[in-house]
Design brief:
The complex is a heterodimer. By secondary structure, chain A is α/β, with parallel strands linked by helices. Chain A is built from 21 helices and 24 strands. By secondary structure, chain B is α/β, with parallel strands linked by helices. The chains are: A alpha/beta, B alpha/beta.
């Protein structure tokens, strides 16, 4: 547990209030810097600095904040203390100023209730670990605006809201104890640390001596703020830290707010480290419509590409693949328009393939708004195409699509797979696994492997094909062709070692939803994006 | 109004489409003189560090960006170029954030591409082979694990950087872009030191 000395400032002067009452302010003769230096000398790592002037000043004079920032700057440049700064913070600009001045943590109180969306913006922009939610309570009632008003919410509900916002540090001040030197409300903290074990709870109010510190530590608090007792000199910080260290030897552990490792929070849920398995709906496009057939034939209409793209994106698709399956010259332009319209509705990456014959084709597809380009037949025909595209667009944006067909039909006896070109019409006379290896050598950053035998049949991915390729290459492999049951998707990842699973019919015709596939993968302990 | 720095290698149009989708007004910035029109600047980098710096130098953006006082958001390579130096092509970068950019460890597949979990638990989309190593760990605002834990986002003064792609990262990406846009709008009157 971290013992954190506090300094309250009113008009630049160190003061202590009794129970938050400004009329009761006692001024102390030492300057904020001198006091901070003395705390550092006595062994403090952190300093809790509260700007009462801004908290009090509801008319919000911006000079108050500037003045406060100046004090923060002086203390952080002249000591090694890490600062928790708070009091009267009302805007993202205030927060930025304080952080720029050197504060390590920002303490937010009233703003949590007055403008939660602004708080969310702040957590997003500046990093949520930098924030401490301060709740001041009196008889289970949360008080705001310098304790004058009720936030009309119970303490537990307030903590729940704060946790939901993503904050992990909560400073809880018991108003009735604050500045009264009657000892902290240990029962309260004990209950809260049990009830909210994922939070680091910092206690404040009434802390007098080593015994109080020990009790709060035992109650499970991550920190204890001590103010008045230090100012009054009833106990010295040095004594407090020394006897506490001797007793517990805990003080040296980095349990401070910043030392608390952010990544620790989700370790329990991390079932498989690394990247999420992607679930990808594939949209085969012909003449501006999504179509789907079986073994590349008998095409059926499946809807409007832009509409479907938006819907899949909403539903949790991790990526989209568009394949222009009848790419004739005149349809080419409609494809570029389509790419642009899709790019305007989705907020996930998408790959476009089909009929890519040249570096110029690939460049145009990216310029139109796609993130990656898939090359299929032309990569087999033109030995330099993949490397040229990878050089121009980067390997990460270059996908090699491979259509593979088993050499024998007997399901128990696999002799290998051949590569098909021209949408499954021609046998390229090459071994699919060897070709996969070569494609990666040439610069493909990813492989989209479709089993011709399984395509559109819903009988399961060709896991042997996938595993054979995955064992040869180090780039991600997208499994395609045959996705039907939930089990088949799980097997593609478990047995086929695929990094992503792609399907068309089952999604287009509503047999399975993206969510169901993801849930099945999660049940099988694979990491998915929720 | 947000400016999007349009570079030879960057994916400015992807970012523009994302902002359009979020109803955030934006305009392309092709030369330093246009910067007075915008409240903030997004620099969506892509490609190699050397080419990126060369492009900035040729168009006189180097000094302009070093002195930039409005909110700035560098994406991917745009974040990496904020640092002193990049191992990629041994490139001297803008030197706005102290630290360097180095290759991902040899134990992992490069590039780091796909959806990965930030320390906050949210999944975002990454495509990169190099990572930023700030001198001061306090500038790091998000981290991610890939072989090792590394920096996924930074902020120093008015300079923000994301190693991931907010324009392709679903809801968390939208949230970041909206927060940045609101920040830019509100701090347009503030002077940055």
């Amino acid at each position: 547990m971290e013992v954190i000395p506090a300094i309250d400032l009113l008009d630049g002067q160190v003061v202590r209030l009794r129970q938050g009452n400004f009329d009761s302010a006692t001024a102390y003769p030492r300057s904020p810097l001198a006091l901070a230096q003395s705390y550092q000398e006595q062994g403090a790592n952190w300093l809790h600095l509260v700007n009462l002037s801004s908290a009090k000043d509801s008319a919000r004079d911006p000079r108050q904040m500037t003045f406060f920032c100046e004090i923060v700057r002086v203390i952080t440049t002249q000591t090694n203390l890490r600062l928790q700064a708070g009091g009267g913070i009302r805007s993202l600009g205030d927060i930025a100023q304080l952080l720029n001045a050197g504060a390590s943590s920002i303490v937010l109180g009233t703003l949590l209730f007055e403008d939660p969306s602004l708080v969310l913006d702040a957590l997003t922009l500046f990093g949520r670990e930098k924030f401490i939610a301060a709740l001041d309570i009196r008889n289970n009632d949360v008080r705001i605006r310098g304790w004058k008003e009720s936030a009309a919410i119970t303490l537990d509900d307030a903590i729940r809201n704060i946790t939901e916002m993503g904050m992990a540090n909560v400073l809880i001040t018991d108003i009735d104890r604050d500045g009264m030197m009657v000892g902290p409300n240990v029962d309260l903290y004990e209950r809260l640390t049990k009830f909210f074990p994922e939070l680091s709870i910092i206690a404040s109010g009434g802390v007098r001596n080593v015994e109080d510190i020990r009790n709060l530590d035992e109650a499970g608090c991550g920190g204890a703020v001590i103010g008045k007792a230090l100012c009054e000199g009833t106990v010295s910080l040095r004594e407090l830290l020394r006897s506490y260290d001797n007793e517990t030897e805990k003080h040296v552990t980095p349990s401070g707010v910043e030392g608390r490792h952010a990544g620790d929070m989700n370790d329990g849920k991390n079932l498989r480290s690394g990247l999420a398995i992607r679930v990808i709906p594939c949209l085969d496009v012909s003449a501006g419509r999504v179509v789907k057939g079986t073994r590349f034939h008998n095409l059926r209409d499946a809807g409007d590409p832009v509409e479907l793209a938006g819907m899949y994106c909403e539903e949790g698709a991790d990526e989209l693949v568009f394949l222009d399956i009848t790419a004739t010259a005149e349809e080419r332009q409609s494809l570029f328009d389509l790419i642009g319209r899709v790019a305007e509705v989705v907020n996930i990456p998408f790959t476009v393939g089909g009929g890519v014959r040249s570096v110029d084709d690939a460049r145009k597809i990216l310029e139109a708004g796609a993130d990656k380009v898939a090359v299929n037949s032309a990569a087999v025909w033109d030995s330099s195409l993949l490397s040229d595209i990878a050089e121009e667009l980067g390997s990460a944006n270059t996908v090699c699509a491979i259509d593979a067909k088993r050499k024998v039909c007997h399901p128990e006896l696999v002799e290998g797979w051949v590569v098909l070109t021209r949408g499954g019409r021609d046998d390229a006379g090459r071994d699919a696994v060897a070709w996969a290896d070569e494609a990666v050598e040439r610069g493909a950053g990813e492989l989209l492997v479709t089993s011709y035998d399984r395509d559109g049949t819903g009988t399961g991915f060709d896991c042997e094909l996938l595993a054979a390729i995955k064992n040869r290459v180090s780039v991600p492999v997208i499994a395609s062709g045959g996705g039907g049951s939930l089990k088949s998707f799980v097997e593609a990842v478990r047995l086929g070692k695929a990094d992503a699973v792609l399907a068309a019919s089952v999604f287009h015709f509503g047999q399975l939803s993206i969510r169901q596939v993801k849930a099945a993968l999660a049940d099988a302990s694979f990491q998915i994006r929720l | 109004m947000l400016g999007i720095l349009r570079t030879a290698t960057g994916n400015a149009t992807s970012v523009q489409r994302a902002l359009m989708r979020l109803n955030i007004p934006s305009t392309f910035i092709d030369e330093p003189g246009q910067l007075s029109q915008v409240d903030a600047l997004i620099f969506p980098g892509a490609g190699a560090a050397q080419a990126g710096m060369r492009d900035l130098r040729e168009r006189n953006f180097v000094e302009t960006l070093r002195d930039f006082r409005k909110p700035f958001l560098g994406l991917c390579l745009g974040m990496q170029l904020l640092f002193d130096f990049s191992e990629e092509g041994q490139t001297e970068c803008l030197g706005i954030i102290p630290g360097s950019v180095r290759s991902l460890p040899s134990t992992v597949i490069k590039p780091h591409m796909g959806w990965n979990r930030l320390h906050t638990g949210e999944f975002v989309y990454f495509v990169h082979g190099f990572v930023c190593v700030p001198e001061d760990p306090r500038v790091t605002t998000m981290t991610v694990q890939y072989g090792e834990e590394f920096c996924a986002a930074v902020r120093l003064k008015n300079f923000f950087g994301l190693q991931w792609h907010p324009e392709k990262s679903g809801a968390p990406g939208d949230r970041f872009l909206c927060a940045f846009s609101r920040f830019a709008e509100r701090s347009s009157l503030q002077s940055w030191k």
